UniProtKB/TrEMBL annotation:
One Pfam family here: Aa_trans
InterPro entries: AA_transpt_TM
Transmembrane segments annotated in the record for this chain: 49-70, 76-98, 128-151, 157-176, 188-209, 237-258, 270-292, 312-333, 354-376, 382-405, 417-443
Protein name: Transmembrane amino acid transporter protein-domain-containing protein
Keyword check for Membrane: yes
Membrane topology reported for the UniProt record: Multi-pass membrane protein
């Protein structure tokens, strides 16, 4: 761990140290945190993520291959409706992410969305959101493992059985996901972010300079058939919107990130940089790739520019996919770890109990994600289903409830001032919009799973087939 800041020990200096509940209080050998307890120099420092590291972790929790489903969503909706939906989702999720930081400063004992559920809805709320949090990230981790296997198949031209590649992804994910603190993760996040953006930009440039996308007719004149506005069915439209929501659904991870910040007061700065960068990237990639590829855009879009560019792009993307997978293994593992050892001296020590518990948590998450990803025939459809159901549920409604929890009583005694009324209406809008998208998106995903299974029968368990041929 990094060294704790050296502080003066004169009595008059120590009296100036704040002692607000949950605020980190330091002296030369020890600090206290409302979540982690006593943080000493002999154990891991769980409060050492700087604001720049926070930017990297935030962006990496959102930018993955999900960004490459945005051109396909634009194909379904049309460019203008797609951009309107994307920007609306960006505004709502940015406010939701902002509320995470505000709620953390108001309630320093909160570590995860499960803790907020416990404050607002009691033990039942804590159990519900804790289960939803773990299930969501387990499915995302499984999706990450399959994405790594796709990249390895694409780069190596299917040099080994896909089941072997998925197992390799699980082993690497467990090894790196077992890094104990997010401060040590932030360097990997920068590497992963750089690699995935390089892959995305490679494809974007390639589709712009090529004559036509790889799947377009090659023996006749061709012009892009992009649409300003489209006329999709309800199921198609809500599925496309769900994919846009999923691209911003890193919100549940932000609780863990702000809890490990060195100074949570810088959270908003990091958030604004993150959301501005993510939205600019999503708009640029979605618009440019769809403009040049039209209805022939691949999903994920790394395959839109032909076999050679796909191989190069997946080569660049591979480190980014590995970092994403390790991060989403780390998050639920850390949540379970803290639930088990919170209040114990073992939480921030290097004791055998600490290590055995920590490695058991990350290993359990890895094994469950690996089995689900490898054994379920319609796993891709289930990821969409879990994303529509849980990704929306944990990115919209709880944050509106958090504002109401902290502010409901403030307006009633003051004649319901205009700002308070406006915020209550906004929270109602967020809850209503989130609930509609959750229910409708879940319905669309279920229909998609059924249609996909009828057409292909799903994939075989622990299949050796080359899964890069379809992307």
């Amino acid at each position: 761990m990094s060294e704790l800041p050296k502080m003066k020990t004169e009595p008059e200096d120590l009296t100036q140290v704040p002692s607000m509940v949950g605020e980190i209080r330091s002296h030369p050998a020890m600090a206290h945190d409302a979540v982690f307890g006593e943080i000493s120099e002999g154990g891991p420092n769980y409060r050492d993520v700087g604001w720049l590291g926070t930017v990297a972790l935030m962006m990496k929790s959102q930018i993955g291959l999900g960004v490459l489903s945005i051109p396909s969503a634009f194909d379904t909706l049309g460019i203008i409706p797609g951009l309107i939906c994307l920007c609306t989702i960006a505004i709502i999720t940015t406010w939701s992410d902002y509320m995470v930081g505000v709620f953390k400063l108001n309630h320093r004992e909160v570590y995860s969305i499960a803790d907020t559920g416990g404050l607002m809805f009691g033990r039942a709320g804590q159990a519900f959101f804790g289960f939803a949090f773990c299930l969501y990230w387990i499915f995302v981790a499984g999706s990450g493992m399959l994405s790594i296997s796709i990249a390895l198949n694409a780069v190596s031209t299917h040099a080994a059985c896909t089941a072997i590649f998925v197992a390799v992804a699980a082993i690497v994910g467990f090894a790196l996901g077992s890094i104990r603190t997010l401060s040590r993760f932030s360097f990997l996040a920068w590497i992963g972010l750089t690699c995935i953006l390089t892959a995305i930009l490679t494809v974007t440039i390639a589709v712009g300079i090529q004559d036509r996308p790889a799947s377009a007719p090659q023996d006749s004149p061709w012009t892009s058939d992009y649409k300003i506005a489209n006329n999709p069915s309800f199921t198609e439209a809500i599925t496309a919107i769900s994919s846009l929501i999923f691209a911003y659904a890193g919100t549940p991870a932000f609780f863990s990130i702000v809890s490990e910040m060195r100074d949570p007061n810088y959270y908003t700065r990091s958030l604004l940089i993150c959301q501005s960068g993510v939205t600019a990237i999503y708009i640029t990639i979605g618009t440019v790739v769809y403009y040049y590829c039209g209805s022939y855009v691949a999903s994920p879009a790394l395959g839109s520019a032909g076999a050679m560019v796909k191989k190069v792009a997946y080569g660049f993307a591979l480190p980014g996919l590995i970092v994403t997978t390790t991060l989403v293994i780390h998050l639920p593992g850390k949540y379970i770890f803290i639930r088990l050892l919170r209040g114990s001296k073992h939480l921030t020590s290097n004791s055998p109990t600490h290590w055995l518990t920590w490695l058991s948590c990350t290993l359990s998450i890895t094994i469950i994600a690996y089995i689900i990803a490898s054994a379920i025939p319609v796993f891709d459809g289930l990821v969409s289903l879990v994303g529509a159901l849980l990704g929306t549920l944990m990115s919209f409604q709880p944050m509106a409830c958090m504002w109401l929890y902290d502010n409901w009583s403030k307006g009633r005694g003051q004649g319901k001032r205009a700002r308070w009324v406006a915020m209550v209406c906004w929270c109602g809008f967020v809850i209503g919009t989130g609930t509609f998208c959750m229910v409708a998106g879940t319905y669309g995903s279920v229909v998609g799973v059924m249609d996909s299974y009828r057409e292909s029968g799903g994939s075989a368990a622990w299949s050796c087939a080359d899964n890069s041929n379809s992307v």
